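Objective 1b: paired records.
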Amino acid sequence: MGDDSGRLYRLDGVAHIAGVINDEPQRCISSMRWQQKMRLDERYVLYLQMVGLYHLARLNDRWFRLDEPLVSAFVKRWRPETHTFHMPFGECTITLQDIAYHLGLPVDGHCVSGCLTDFHETFEECPEWADEETVRRFARAYIMMLLGTQLFADKSGNRIHIRWLPYVARLEEMGGYSWGSAVLAWLYRCMCRVANRHVVKLDGPLQLLQSWIFWRFPRFWPDGFDSFSWPLASRWSGYNLDVSEKGPRVQMTRLRIDMLQPRDFIWMPYSTPEVVQVVHPEVLEPRHTALWRFVTSLIYFAVVEWHQVDRVLPQFGGVQARPRPALNIDILMSKDGRGGDRWFPSQLQH
């Protein structure tokens, strides 16, 4: 299912961590996490449902500690050329289907194309006496917090980008955007960056990545998390690992990954009766499910990544043929939003 080294073109043996793994066997990435305390007020629910982020809001209070050694070991297997993990048994990756099931985000809709230091203190809790307009302002602040810290977090760790202001100003229109595809684009970009041996800080929706690993790889399941509800990432609420001895844990996890067999990966974890019973009906609407298998671009402002599900057909019940050569999208991956905001139309024209 995978490419040989001659068919891969990016970072191979030059800067990819896999090329120097023996020199840095215990390399462990570090993550940024803004510990916010903004409470989900029931008066926000109407607006959260309007913008398509209600399930994420319910998940916000149930996040879990990131297992940095586990994620570090998986990073070694990530290939920026294909946006897949190259495992001993073949390729696998996080898809729009996983986004829908783990975070409950919409994947159909329009593409999603400053430092607020006192933001958190100002909007931590909505007053009991608040009128409708005040509640609306606090709901906007809560939505900005979800976007800036849970879905599109960056390495600053304590800032929310002003790019979200035009979106929250028009709450009635926010529900028409594909937040799921934007989140996946950002996760892909963050994974591609940290696959470089010179990058050690990882940002992005990392709880999504860890939840995907736990659901797909039974050998890495933590004990005591048998029951689950919706969205599926909430299953790991309360997970709190021992943070000591990170380096040796990275090395041990890498060895466990090296020994994985096809039976150690769950290709279709969402088809079980237990999952079907808790899944939200909206996720299974044809307008969403039809996009899960699309080979298409994923857009988050200047970030454009490729949804290469043709390389992981068994995750959708298909039979995997020999993949085509890796698609060279370096011209897109080099864009980060700097140098003006008019790049997007001109790039698509060529």
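Objective 1b, second protein:
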Amino acid sequence: MLTVVQSPRRCTVREGLGASAHLRQGRELFVPELYVGQSTVVLVLAGRKTVFGQGELWRCDEGGLILLPHGASYGVTNQLNGDAPYEAISLMFDDSLIAASAEAATAMGAGPSAASAASDESRAAPAVAAAPGMSGASAFAPLVAPRVLAAPAAGLRQAVERVRALWMEPHTPDQIARHAAQEVLVWLALQGSRFAPATQPSFLARLRALLAAAPAQPWNAASAAIALNVSEATLRRRLARDGHSMSGLLLEVRLSQAMMLLQATDDYVGQIALDCGFANHAHFSRMFKGRFGITPTQLRDPEHAVA
């Protein structure tokens, strides 16, 4: 049985390293499309996380890890175990760390040419629990799809919990915080899993990042175009090409940010609404329920009746 982390609930951001969160929710939630902007490791403490996309489905139960490569959208369901809330630790790594881990993996015995020669099957296996000490091209081929480590080494689980604890402590030296994160990535490499460094971000990814960095700002197509140094017509054309509109993408980003804060902090719902760009609590609740089928309060409180 895992010891559930009892640290104060807040999202922690470490510049140049990434972000971490202790997620908790009191009611099952289905998210039809969740964009993963950074390479992410999720340690499930209680309940089950199910991720689906690309014609595949990945299930991760209590004690397991699920690895989510950056740059793709997935459907996600967090399921409760009886009356107990779903809980997980989420680590989202900055690309500079991922790039450093790629160099380390090469030094451990799998060069880029070998990794690129790995088969699609070995690179995209949806649920692999590789044994520690794996070597060769299959061990170091970058992930192109989620991967489940159903029974990770105890040391790896402890390393994830240690990163969360160290990143939360504001007095932790940056060198220690970085070393702890690199330890997790080395553990993953030893178990046959490595995230791919980010390539040049797409226009849509750059726009998402812009909006997510300041969701409360009164964004519109004109202001976003100026920030990205393109014309408003170009911005609208590129969004339409990818099946998006400015208003739709902005709402998606704001709701995703709000959902993370609802799960990972104890902030008041009304404050989360304002921080994510919604006019007030009532407006936020309507938009949230329209998207996810339950209100923000119902997500946190399983005793709150669903209307």
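The longest strand covers residues 18-25. The CA atoms of residues 216 and 275 lie 5 Å apart.
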